[in-house]
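Researcher: I'd like a structural prediction for the single chain below. Treat it as a standalone chain; there are no partners to consider.
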Amino acid sequence: MEQSSDHVVLDVFSDVACPWCFVGLRMLQQAREGWDGPSVDLQWRAFQLAPENPPEGISFARVIEEKFGGAQQYEAATDRLREVGREVGIPFALERIKVSPNTRLAHAVIAQARQTGDPDVVVEALFTGYFCEGVNISDPEEIVALLGRHGADPDPAQLIAAAQTAGAQASVDEDLAIGARIGASAVPLFVVDGVRAIVGAHPPEAIRQLILGDAS
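Model: Treating it as a single chain, here is the predicted structure.
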């Protein structure tokens, strides 16, 4: 059932190891600047691009070789991403990435922040840490340091500890199950009131139209 016209629920399925999801975050932030439409209840939802990665992650150099065929091909494949990043204010420093993470812990941190803190700030810190600072977001200690540097939580160590509990892990499982149920196969995926959706890092106006019910 759709919500009333003065309030909408916006579910954003994304993975913090997805660069286009970072771009999608910037587009969403721009869409909400000066927003005078219905109030938006933003819910960050977990999606994993590489759930098969071990908890500690794998070498990113291995990913470059196996997925892209080498450093030269990787550079060519990410040229457009870097250009778009500059346009939206993301200083991508992909050369600093050393680990392709399993993002389950990061998603659990976001899930816990939904309950106790400011998930928007945590999401921003995780994206920035991974893509601009080369932080290994599979590593609890590195996440604690990252959140502390960015002022994303008053007690990052406690947040990480809570993220490793059964409750936070169950929240991640719930998000993944919701995504599977609605057929989410690519991210970022923006879903309004469970009935309207667009996938991809769309311009701000497209996101506004989606929220207002004007997207085709």
